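Quick start: what a row looks like.
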Amino acid sequence: MKKIYLLFAFVFTTFIYSQTTLEEYNYMLSGYHIQKSNGLDLKNGYEFEEVLNETLNGINYNIVAMSKTNKSFVGLIVTISAKDEQFYYAVPVENSDLFLKYYQELQELKTVNNQILIDYNYLTSTILASVFYNIKN
């Protein structure tokens, strides 16, 4: 798990940030999963790097960083797999309207399966704490 935190810290400290566009957000939310599940090439002009693949309480959480080939960071693609259900989320960067949309989608998860939301919050909080710890030290 420590390697995952270090990788996540590396990803966040080496990318240049840019504002996530609506087109990129929609791709992270659905296009990525459609292309990947059908074995198609991923979006041209972008790179994808898995930063977390963790199972907690029988639920798999996968987070992929999406960046432009010039290394500007676009956002995170989140896939949560629980039994027969999959949930997809896109975490945008520097776009408050899209971030509000992401937040509202997470709130809907609370009504479907509150344990998934609790575990997701736990994982992202520990990663965030590790990132700040590594930046400070």
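That is the whole record. The longest strand covers residues 46-56. Residues 114-136 form the longest helix (23 residues).
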